[in-house]
């Protein structure tokens, strides 16, 4: 009985966070639509964004990369930091309306989940963490 005690306690503790079979089915059907804003921003951020050019340490004009930005933004030369900053963030400024719309949709999705009492994700995460700590 002691072996099952922790699992039984978890069941009671997380009962409010457990969906019915019908709710789980609805959630799985709308899950992809609700993840669209995150996927959209991921595509913009990881595939579509092209940063401007900067002057590298050899004095050559090269396309800025995220790795190069990390180095240049900490450079002692203020002009290099400024050039890197604007080259890095200008593409985001050009897409500000698309990014804002994507963020607004993500916020509306989160509010919809709250309104429907579907904040089950937190409960599931807690259950998963609890289980993984016990090696299940």
UniProtKB/TrEMBL annotation:
Domain of life: Bacteria
UniProt domain Oligopeptidase F N-terminal: residue ranges: 2-51
Lineage, broadest ranks: Bacteria, Bacillati, Bacillota, Bacilli, Bacillales
Organism of this sequence: Peribacillus frigoritolerans
Cross-referenced Pfam families: Peptidase_M3_N
Protein name: Oligopeptidase F N-terminal domain-containing protein
InterPro entries the record matches: OligopepF_N_dom
